[in-house]
Amino acid sequence: MGLGKELLYKFKYRWQLILYAEVLIYAIGVFALLYGVFLNSVLAIISALVVAVIVTFIKQPWTKDINKTVGFIDANLKEATYSSGLLLVSDQELTSLSKLQQYKVSQEIKSKLQTLTPPNTIRRALLVSCLLIIIGGLGYKTNVFKGFSNPLLNAKEKSKIIFTPIDSVFKNAVLKPELSSQKITIAAPNYARVAKITTENPNVKALVNSSVSWELSFDKKVSEVIMELNGKTQPLELTEDSYYIKLQVMESGIYNFRFKDLNRNTYLSDLYSIEAVEDEAPKVEISGIPQYSYFDFGQDNQIQFTTSLIDDYGIDDAYIIATVSKGTGESVKFREEKISFNNEIKKGAKQLQLGKKIRLNDLKMEMGDELYFYVEVFDQKQPKPNRSRSETFFAVIKDTSTNLFAVEGALGVDQMPDYFRSQRQLIIDTEKLIKERSKLTKEDFKFKSNELGFDQKALRLKYGQFMGDESEMDVAPNEMENEEEHDQESENHEDDDPLEKYTHDHDGANEQHLVPEKAEEKEDPLHDYIHNHSDPEEAALFEESLKTKLRKALNIMWDAELHLRLYNPEKSLPYQYQALKLIQEIKNSARIYVHRIGFDPPPIKEDKRLTGDIKGIKNYQKTASNSFEQEFVNIRRAIVRLDEFINTNGNYEKSDAILFQMAGNELALKAIEEPGKYLTTLQKIKTISENKMHSKSEYNAIQKVLLALLPETEKQPGSKQDFKNEINSLFLNKLTGYE
């Protein structure tokens, strides 16, 4: 049945068409609203297209296929008896009963489908669109939204240079020249690779060293046109029918134009800004490695990292500056090398990712040598490029070998024992004990583990001396010696007097009272305020960070000794490694890296050497004067003069022109930094300097801005004058009497 299938597809197309109509209605409403409010067809068209796309994705008309159409008809049309799907099946695939049902359904829905409406919200879309059209029409007729439309509607008018006559009354006002066209061209430096920009906006924003040209045309002839920039005047050159000037932007500033007509009437434009944008230095960042890297001897001592370079106008070159230090103390030597990256540097690229792998062996580094390196990058700024460098990174090959100090008898003393080697030797002995555990008897294993624990204790006590801890190693031998002497004295006394146990020694009984008691020492009143460097507990040998690390190492050594005493060397080994790492950090923290600066002394003339001739040599003298200069002197004077204009209606004098011109120059320095804040006030001050008076409200507004510009006065020490009268004095005296 082709007729039934055709009916279903027509219903599907009608459903999709209604949904697309809703999208169009919403778009027309938005277009009418924005055009009526802003009178900007471009903005209205773009907004209508955006709304149309959004509503289309919400409605999704393309998803209403034939299957959804069949489902909707079966659910809302009882005459279809849930058999409208048979209309899509060919006659060859149906049985006789199915063909009969297919024919019946096609006849029933033929007339009913015309009255069935697909699901839609077109009425709501029409209502919303009509409301938007009405609002847009009212805005267009009554111009109610004029305040909202000005930023977009009058953008071109705002960018136009406006001239006003200096004198309120001038000759031949009908023949006043008007600016017919203006063109400003900005050409960035060649290295920036930026196309020329042509605009009408007089507020210029350009890269430093850019060329900016102004071309002004008037509808009538004028005698001359002058540009005033940062207090300097430059005439414009007449070329055919326009006036032209070209400048190179090196710094920010404020400018305006001035021209005279054929009747010598002077016209002045508003003030406009030139903002010189600095070419920023490139940014460099190293990732992939820690700032400090340590390598053991024999380890694969190589470092690999990635460097990210970013610049606003293009990178010119980048490389690695590596410095290798050998030796210690006064015998230290430095060698500096310049290393290239693995990747080729593409000149002019604004963003680069460079990788590098440095093998310390290739730099001929040995144990104890240190590597300091950083990345240096240059951009393409001309004539002098910007330079940036990364942080300094360090790579150290640990030195485990030391020189032993050998002595004979009492000929010498090693004042610096090899503390840093002892902990490593303990680790080696502990690892050896763990490997030989299966070969040793239980008694031998415990004996060796306990011996290692004693060695760990001895090392801990040595380090404890630096922290002011009591030394058990010094106390124990003395106590043992005293005990031995006491035993020997007891034996000698027993041999000398065998009857001592059976007699009374009256003199010896009171022996403790025969010895005078030692007077109690008085407490030192300065004890809490001084450092007693002879007392190891109070001596400040290290800075706070080193003390913290050393105390942490001592605590870890205690745990290592504990497990060795408990015959668990496996548990002690991690603590020993931690203690060794902290000791190594304490050792390296005292090293300070200073970049080597070469110095080539001037050659000495052999004929004057050792002659003692001091002719031409003068003593160094320096004379300095600390004179205080008050900021914004002219602005302060202008504030006072404005106060006279407001309160006394003072007359304008010739000296006011110079005063307000100088005050405007001081304000221009701040206007360059913040043009939007001070440009209007600067324009008004300039008109005052041109002998154009304002109202009192305008004077108040100018004075308020100038007062806010002044810095706060620093408070000077001195006596404070308070307002006192006889009543206040009596009141204060009365209060004093009650005290």
**What is the mean pLDDT?**
77
Percent of sequence in beta strands? 15-25%
Helix run count: 19
User: In whole angstroms, how far apart are the ends?
Assistant: 118 Å
Largest sheet entry: 7 strands, mixed
Query: How would you classify the helix and strand content by structural class?
Result: alpha+beta
Spans with pLDDT under 50 lasting ≥5 residues?
A: 146-157, 402-421, 473-486, 489-521, 526-531, 536-544
The coarse silhouette is: flat
What level of helicity do the residues show?
40-55%
- What is the number of independent domains? 5
The count of DSSP E runs of length 2 or more, i.e. the number of strands, is 21
Radius of gyration: 48 Å
Keywords: Membrane, Transmembrane, Transmembrane helix
Region (Disordered): 477-506
Organism: Cellulophaga tyrosinoxydans
Transmembrane segments: 17-35, 41-58
Descriptive account of the structure:
There is one protein chain. About 13% of the residues have low confidence. The chain has 739 residues and is an alpha+beta fold. It is flat and about 110 Å long. It is built from 19 helices and 21 strands. Helix 13 packs antiparallel against helix 14, helix 15 runs antiparallel to helix 18 and helix 16 packs antiparallel against helix 17. It starts with a helix and ends with a helix. Helices cover 42% and strands 18% of the residues.
